[in-house]
Amino acid sequence: MIELYQAQRLDLTQMDQVLFLSRAYAMSSVKINDEQKISINHENLQMAWDLIQKYSEQRKQYDLESLQASKQLQKADCLCNRYDTVGDTDILMGIRENLMIESLVAQPIEQQKMILAQCEKKIVEQKLLYLDYGQIGKENICSKLQSELWWLMH
Fold first, then answer.
1. CA neighbours within 13 Å on the CB side: how many for 54?
2. How buried is residue 62: exposed, middle or buried, by Cβ count under 10 Å (0-12/13-18/19+)?
3. 1 CB-contact burial (10 Å; exposed 0-12 / middle 13-18 / buried 19+)
4. Which residue, of 28, 66, 148, 151, is most buried by count of CB atoms within 10 Å of its CB?
5. CA distance 113 to 104
C-alpha cells in the first residue's frame, strides 16, 4: 500500500486498488454499537480521505491526458468514460459524510442538531477535490446525513 500512496503515477489497476482501499477504509471508519451510539476510527477515516485525494489527483491527470490525446486524434488510456461505473464520486460523498459524522460524535444531541442544521455551511469548509467537478454536493450529503442521523437521535 505504501507504493500506491507514494507513487507519482498510477496505472489503471493501481487506480482501482486505491479507490477500493479508500472505500474499505471509509466503511470501516464508522460503527454503530448495540446502544445506537456512533464511534469513529479517526485513523481509518483519515486514510480514506488521503487515498481519495490521491485517486482524485490521478484521475485529473488521466482526464487531462485523454483530452490532449483526443485533440491530437490519438487513443488514450482514459478514465473519463468509466466514471459512471466506477462509483468514485459516491465513495467521495460517503467519506465526506463520515467526516461530518466525526464532527458530530463528541457533541451532545442538542449541539448535533445545531451542527446538522448548518451542515451545508460546514461541508463547504472541506477541501474541494477534482472529483467534486467544481462543487461539493452539499445538498445531497446533508439531506442523506440528516435523514440517517435522525433515526439515531430519536
1. 27
2. buried
3. exposed
4. 66
5. 9
Is there a contact between 47 and 25 (Cβ–Cβ < 8 Å)?
A: yes
Cα 106 from chain centroid?
A: 21
The Cα 112–Cα 79 span in angstroms is 39
Distance CA 88, CA 53 (A): 11
- C-alpha separations of 35 from 38, 40, 50, 87 in Å: 9, 15, 31, 32
Q: 4 to each of 18, 24, 58, how far by Cα in Å?
A: 7, 15, 11
Q: Is pLDDT above 90 for 28? A: yes
Q: Model-level pTM? A: 0.79
Residue 84: the pLDDT is 46
Helix, strand or coil, per DSSP, at residue 129 = coil
Phi, psi of 77 (to 5 degrees): -75, 110
| Averaged confidence pLDDT in the chain | 81
In the predicted model, is pLDDT for residue 55 greater than 60? yes
Query: Would you state the pLDDT for residue 82?
Result: 56
